[in-house]
Amino acid sequence: MFFNSLKLYCSREDLGFRLVCEQVSHHPPVSAFHAESEDFQFYGNIHPRLKFWGKSLEIKPEGTLTVHLLKHKEVYSWTNVHCCVHNIIIGKLWFEQYGMMEIQCHTNGLTAQLNFKSAGWFGRDLHRIEGFIVDSQ
């Protein structure tokens, strides 16, 4: 079996960064990327799971993202929250992001736990985020 991957390479010396992206698997779709400059390194993988619910599309982007802030000597990693695009057939198109996100700072042991609230029936919590920071030490 042979898989012909999709690869993108971009080097912008005028802007000071390089980027490599590749679709490393077609079924299931899995993509990986690495971007870097003299200030940061940003890399990760993502394999979205999609569900069509008739009038909406739910996207669950699984995978881990990591950023190294080189000047600050800090490393952070996190996973994405779910996204739902509503009224894709008819009506006013809108989207929401919801679910738990945990951002870990591997340098100092701090963890941010964020809860992206779902809009619910009346939309009161649309785009609302609650969270706290935990020190593992």
From TrEMBL:
One of its GO terms (molecular function) is sterol binding. Keywords: Lipid transport, Lipid-binding, Transport. The keyword Transport applies. GO terms for cellular component: cytosol; perinuclear endoplasmic reticulum; plasma membrane. It comes from the Eukaryota. InterPro entries: OSBP_sf, Oxysterol-bd, Oxysterol-bd_CS. Signal peptide: none annotated. Belongs to the OSBP family. This is Oxysterol-binding protein. The lineage of its organism: Eukaryota, Metazoa, Ecdysozoa, Arthropoda, Chelicerata. The gene is OSBPL1A.
